[in-house]
């Protein structure tokens, strides 16, 4: 029987289409329980490859006949070994090419909507890590928001659409993933925008992203309006795009809200977070489509794989927007926090330009799940 | 460099090869022997640790030298079901309260690599296999508390010492596997 490589892109599309998939994850138990491939129709079991060196007979009976079977490990080496053993026993199996490393780095572009003047807005879904970045296209130009370090993906996408990237923006100083913003700006000649309050003492030059400045995409009139919305970081800034989309960064998610502690200042920033969510956002149009910088669970994905919901819907459904007592809110977001993302302090320093890391080191720093939200 | 019975060079090899090779070499070792695995694959630490646990081997520790990881593992020895015949035995707690006494000493008879990664501060290391040749380094007038991982090797060591004329030899049961007191490493 045969062993076939499956690319992260293929697997991502199967997950989004909710095709039945069976994942045999052969990493060690700790890695698996920390972070794994998830999806509404994904079943998975975890048997470390080193427990299968003497044979796979035991696993054979656990494998279903009615699902595609994908063997997964950290980089792919062990999954190929196990897949070969399964094929010898008579199973048709896939292995995930590049392993969880590739899964973590894959970006799936999904169109979230049209803008006025014939423009478009795309969301880049990083399924493996829950990061979302955006490209707004109009009239031959593009702006890019919260770009990941996989910079080629955006540059190639812009080329395929025939647009030139003019502005690259970060809603805030990220602590969970490495920003590709500066690199793309350098490569394309675009300007790089960052909220000045998050960019204290950075050794590079940038455009100050502040409320009142309007960024135009294309020669016509797609506007990106910054809204100062502190709380996750002190500089956190949201954008209203074309009066229709609210890019909320790490402040507001679909089923959760931002956490104020990743710079070590939870007590100081909780008031800002409350003010942003309960005053500033509540004064915005409920018709705005909220497009966050992260998702936490697969249930937040819409049927087409995008992540986004009307602000009005979130105001009534998102628990984090419905905590009446300030005291309870304070306790919820400072006292009950999930573990912090892997290497988050180093990631902040890297995004601040204070340290440098090679590609392999950057990859290691980003391994693992995203943990930027409080549910 | 910490002594090992066998050194495996797995440098430059990617997962799963470091573990595949370690398993092969381990098969040819005697129970209780120590292997040093040299690897450059960063994932090898977590995987060797997890594999050792599932295969009942002991993962002792890792020393990082430049880009090379030196992992130390000890082959499963079956000493879990230790029968102790030497008398007297003392508990870990009893040893802990005897540590400060002038007339007592701790003799650790585990392999050098086990001792290197974690031992009781002030303990003297003489692996069981070297006890006969190094015995004269010990003071017969002291209370000698013999410790190993489970109480099995220390039982053999205690008997050897008693036969050689040591009058105040105590076997510590279970020993390091249940030790909650202070430890140090080399």
UniProtKB/TrEMBL annotation, chain A:
<dbReference type="InterPro" id="IPR051682">
    <property type="entry name" value="Mito_Persulfide_Diox"/>
</dbReference>
<dbReference type="InterPro" id="IPR036866">
    <property type="entry name" value="RibonucZ/Hydroxyglut_hydro"/>
</dbReference>
<protein>
    <recommendedName>
        <fullName>Rhodanese domain-containing protein</fullName>
    </recommendedName>
</protein>
<dbReference type="InterPro" id="IPR001763">
    <property type="entry name" value="Rhodanese-like_dom"/>
</dbReference>
<feature type="domain" description="Rhodanese">
    <location>
        <begin position="17"/>
        <end position="112"/>
    </location>
</feature>
<dbReference type="InterPro" id="IPR001279">
    <property type="entry name" value="Metallo-B-lactamas"/>
</dbReference>
<dbReference type="GO" id="GO:0070813">
    <property type="term" value="P:hydrogen sulfide metabolic process"/>
</dbReference>
<dbReference type="InterPro" id="IPR044528">
    <property type="entry name" value="POD-like_MBL-fold"/>
</dbReference>
<dbReference type="InterPro" id="IPR036873">
    <property type="entry name" value="Rhodanese-like_dom_sf"/>
</dbReference>
<dbReference type="Pfam" id="PF00581">
    <property type="entry name" value="Rhodanese"/>
</dbReference>
<dbReference type="GO" id="GO:0006749">
    <property type="term" value="P:glutathione metabolic process"/>
</dbReference>
<dbReference type="GO" id="GO:0050313">
    <property type="term" value="F:sulfur dioxygenase activity"/>
</dbReference>
<dbReference type="Pfam" id="PF00753">
    <property type="entry name" value="Lactamase_B"/>
</dbReference>
From TrEMBL, chain B:
<feature type="domain" description="Rhodanese">
    <location>
        <begin position="100"/>
        <end position="185"/>
    </location>
</feature>
<dbReference type="InterPro" id="IPR001763">
    <property type="entry name" value="Rhodanese-like_dom"/>
</dbReference>
<protein>
    <recommendedName>
        <fullName>Rhodanese domain-containing protein</fullName>
    </recommendedName>
</protein>
<dbReference type="InterPro" id="IPR001455">
    <property type="entry name" value="TusA-like"/>
</dbReference>
<dbReference type="Pfam" id="PF01206">
    <property type="entry name" value="TusA"/>
</dbReference>
<dbReference type="InterPro" id="IPR036868">
    <property type="entry name" value="TusA-like_sf"/>
</dbReference>
<dbReference type="InterPro" id="IPR001307">
    <property type="entry name" value="Thiosulphate_STrfase_CS"/>
</dbReference>
<dbReference type="InterPro" id="IPR050229">
    <property type="entry name" value="GlpE_sulfurtransferase"/>
</dbReference>
<dbReference type="InterPro" id="IPR036873">
    <property type="entry name" value="Rhodanese-like_dom_sf"/>
</dbReference>
<dbReference type="Pfam" id="PF00581">
    <property type="entry name" value="Rhodanese"/>
</dbReference>
<dbReference type="GO" id="GO:0004792">
    <property type="term" value="F:thiosulfate-cyanide sulfurtransferase activity"/>
</dbReference>
